[in-house]
Design brief:
- This protein has about 200 residues and is of the alpha+beta class.
- Helix content is about 35%, strand content about 20%.
- Strands 1-6-5-4-2-3 form a six-stranded antiparallel sheet, sandwiched between helices.
């Protein structure tokens, strides 16, 4: 269920602002921490495989079940609250099923189910209160950025889906849309410079 408690949301917001720069957009660095990065297709956030990926990350990095927060960045979660009395954010326990995550993601406020985070969010992020890892996704560029602690062995994530590419592999492996002010090679070069593996 979308969050209705202002104190809980404000706590999440403080964690979010310590992890991400909400004013930044790709290919700029959106993370405030030095991490190791991989990329995936934006649409993966609405698939069960994505929940499996986050659960594995939580186990690998945080070593135990904990709450994974999903938060709409554009429109920002507070805009949902102004309209519906619910924030565009929710927490799901990493030990929960993919169905729990997907159900909340797909169901908007009771007043307007069409305003679900899945349907309406242009940019989103995922994080835990440990701030050891995070994920940023942007529909405009059709990309998702996964950030894990430096030195993490990505091969320990026993997944084949969603596919995770380095910045240099994005051009050959993923569908993406660079901003109109950049060519595709300029966009990839900028990603590679801002998102080390």
């Amino acid at each position: 269920m979308l969050q209705s408690d202002t104190r809980v949301f404000e706590n999440w917001e403080n964690v979010l602002d310590g992890m991400f720069d909400r004013r930044a957009t790709l290919p700029e660095q959106v993370f405030r921490r030095s991490l190791s990065f991989r990329f995936s297709d934006f649409q993966n956030f609405e698939r069960g495989e994505f929940w499996a990926l986050m659960s594995q990350i939580a186990t690998l990095v945080d070593q135990g079940p904990l709450d994974i927060v999903t938060c709409a960045l554009q429109p920002y979660a507070r805009e949902y609250y102004q309209q519906y009395g619910l924030y565009g954010a929710f927490a799901t326990r990493s030990s929960d099923s993919e169905h729990t995550y997907l159900d909340i993601l797909r169901h908007g406020p009771p007043q307007n189910r069409a305003d679900s985070i899945q349907a309406g969010a242009v940019a989103l992020c995922w994080f835990t209160e440990t701030t050891r890892w995070g994920i940023w996704a942007d529909r405009d560029y059709e990309l998702m950025v996964v950030g894990l602690p430096l030195g993490t062995d990505w091969n320990q994530l026993r997944i084949t889906r969603p596919y995770l590419a380095t910045a240099k592999e994005v051009a050959s492996s993923l569908t993406f849309f660079p901003p109109k002010s950049m060519t595709a090679p300029q966009f990839i070069d900028s990603l590679a410079a801002n998102y080390p593996t």
